Amino acid sequence: MQTNKYRKILSAQNIVKRFPVKAGGFSSSAMYVHALNSVSFDIYENSTLGLVGESGSGKTTTARTILRVHEPDSGRLFFNLPDEGVSDEHDFFKYDRTRLKKERTGMQYIFQDPYLALNPKMEIGDIITEPASSAKKMTRAEREELAKHLLDIVGITSASISKFPHEFSGGQRQRISIARSISVNPKLIICDEPVSSLDVSIQSQILNLLIELQKESGISYLFIAHNLAVVFYMSDFVAVMYAGRIVEYSSSRELYDNPLHPYTQLLRSVVPEIGKGKKIYDKKAQGEVPSLVNLPPGCPFYNRCVKRIEGTCDKILPPLVKVSDNGGPSGHLCACHAVQRISL
Amino acid sequence: MREVISRIIHSIPYLKFKKQKWAVLSLFILLTMYAAIPFEGFFSPFAPNTKFKTKSYHPPHVVHLFHENRFIGPFVYEYEMVNPYFKTYQTDRSRIHRIKLFVKGDSYKLFFFIPSDIHLFGTDDGSQYFPLGTDRLGRDMFSRIIYGAKVSLSIGFVSIFMALFGGIIVGGISGYAGGFADWIIMRVCEVIILLPTFYFFLFLRSVLPSDISPAQKFFYITLILAVPSWAGSARGIRNWTLSLKHADYVTSARISGVSPIVIILRHIIPQIRNILILSITLSIPGVILGEAGLSFLNLGITEPSVSWGMLMSAAMDINILIQYPWVLYPAFVIIITVFCFFSLGYSLKSAFDPKGEV
Ligand SMILES: Nc1ncnc2c1ncn2[C@@H]1O[C@H](COP(=O)(O)OP(=O)(O)OP(=O)(O)O)[C@@H](O)[C@H]1O
Ligand SMILES: [Mg+2]
Q1: Is the CB of residue A114 below 6 angstroms from any atom belonging to ligand 1?
Q2: pLDDT < 70: residue spans in chain B
C-alpha cells in the first residue's frame, strides 16, 4: 500500500461529546455521560472505515456528532476538502447554518432500523427524493424521474414509486433508505448498523449492494457494526471503539491478521468463523464496562484486561499511537500500555 | 390532486366506523345540513327577515291531504288571528291554500351569487305556509332556522380551523424548538385552558367595540370562540411534536436540510392526522354551543344576521315559551347537531384507536 494513493475525505480530530444527565436527589452539580472522549480517525476516498465496538461504546454518537445532529463539545472535523492545508475556517464544526446545509449534502446517514427511518405517511417517491429536492428546487417530473432512477439502482421496481413504506419488507426498506441516501451523490455515507435488524439471508444482499455502489461511484462509507465478521467483510480500515474512545485503528487486513489491543482480541475471539486463533479469553469476559458518568483515570478497559500492568494502566490513560508501520497510510494505531511497551 | 386521492384511498381502511349505524346516520345528517347551506334560499319558503305583521306568533301549520273527505293533495287551512293581544288563532276551514313545489317567492341568491326567486315549496295564492310557525314579528321560523345554519354551522368549522392553524404553528414550533420559548408558550396555554371557557368568552366579548359591521362581528366572534380550542390544540400538538421530533425519519429530514416548519408539516402533523380529525370533530360542538350561548345573551350574532343561538334568545321568556312553544325549535336543531358531532366523534375515536390509547 502506497501512502499517496489515499486521499482523506474526512478527518475527525479529538471529538468530545458529553450529554448532561439529571443528577439524582438534591445534588445540584451537573453530571455528564462522557459519550465521546477525544475521538480521532480518518476516512479515505473510495474506501470504507468500519467502526466496531460493543453496545454503548459511542458508535452512534460518533456518527451523529459528525453529522452535527449532536453539536460536539470540542474537536475539529475536516470533510471533503481539496487538500491537506486545513484551517479553522474549514472546520465542519464551525460552519454556520447555510454553509452546513450546503456541505452536509455530501454526507448521508443510513439508520439501523428500516422500520423507523421512513416516514410511514409518505410515498416512496417523495421519501427518496427529499434530500435532493431540499438541496435544490425540483419540478414534479424531475423528482419522479430521479425516484425511478434511484429505485432502479437499488433493485426495486420503479412502479413502487407511489407506494407507502408499510408495503415493503425490512430488506426492501433498507434498499429504499439507500436510494434516499444516494439521491444527492454524497461523498460519504454513514451506515449505522444497516443490516443488524435484518434476516441473515438478506444481510449479504444489502452489504453487496453497498459494495457495488462503492465500486460504481467511489463513495466512502463509515460502516458501523458490532459484528466483527461483517466489519471485516465490508471495510478497508477498521477503528475499534471502547467506552467512547478509539482503542485501535488500522487497515482491515492488518487488524484481521494481527489484532493488538486486548479488547480487539476479545472481540475477535468471540466471532465463531474467525475466532480460530489463540484463545486468550473465556467466552465470558470478566469485569464490566466502566461508567461513562465517572470515567476512571487510567485505561477504560483496565478491569477486563488480561495484560494489564498494575500501577500504570489504572493510573495513566494510554494514548492512541502508532505501534507499527503496517496497516495503511497512518500505520497501526493502538491505545494500550502493554502493546506500546513491547513495540518500543 | 393525484396525491390527495391516493391519500384518501389509503385512509379508507380506517373508516371502520361504517359498522356503527348511529355514526353513519350522524354523518349523513351533518353532511346534509352543510350541503344545504348554499341552497338556503331555495329550501326556505321566505327570506329570513320577511315580516308578516298580521301573523305574529302564528302556530305551525298542520298539513292536510283530504278536504271534506276528498283527496286534493297537500294543503293548509287559513289560520285567522282572533285575539291580537294574546296572538290566538282560529282555523278557517273554508279557506284552503294548496302547497306547491317550485313556487315563486322572495328573491335570493343561489350559491350566494345566482339570483333566483324559486322556492322548493310554498303556496302561490298570496297566502303563507309556516311549517314551524312564526316569531313575534311574524317571521317564518323554518326559513330562519335554515338561514341560521350558515352562521351556526360554519362558525364551528371556521373557528376550529383557525384554532388548528394557530395550534400547528405555535405548538409545532414550541415542541420543536423547546427551551424557554416552549416554557412560556405552554404556561400561557395552560392559563387559557384553566379559565372557565364561557366567562372567558364573555370577557373577550366585552373588550370588543359594539359598533361593528355584521361581517366584522362574525369574524371577531369566530376568533373569540377559537381561543380556548387554540390553546388546547397547541398543547396537544406541542406534546406530539416533542415525542416525534427524535423519530429517525425526522432526524433524517433534518440532516437533509429540510426546514423546521416543513418538518412539522410534512413529518409530524401527518402522523397525528387521525387525532386531529378526532379533536376537530369533538371540538366543533363546543364552539357551536359557545356561539349559541353568546347569541342567546345578545352578545353574539345580532339582527339582521341570523344564527340558531340568536333565534333561541326569543325563547328566553317562560311565558312566551308556554304560549308559543314552537319558538324552541332552534334549540332542537342545536341539540341534534351537537349530538351528531359527538356521535361521529366517538365512533371515529373507536375506529382510529380501538385500544383507547389516546
Ligand atoms: N441523546 C443522548 N442523551 C444522553 N445520553 C446519550 C444520548 N445518546 C447516547 N447517549 C449515551 O451515550 C453512550 C453511547 O451511546 P451510543 O448510542 O453512541 O452507543 P452505540 O455504540 O451506538 O451503541 P449500540 O451498539 O447499542 O447502538 C451511551 O451510554 C448512551 O446512553
Ligand atoms: Mg448505535
Answers
A1: no
A2: 1-19, 353-358
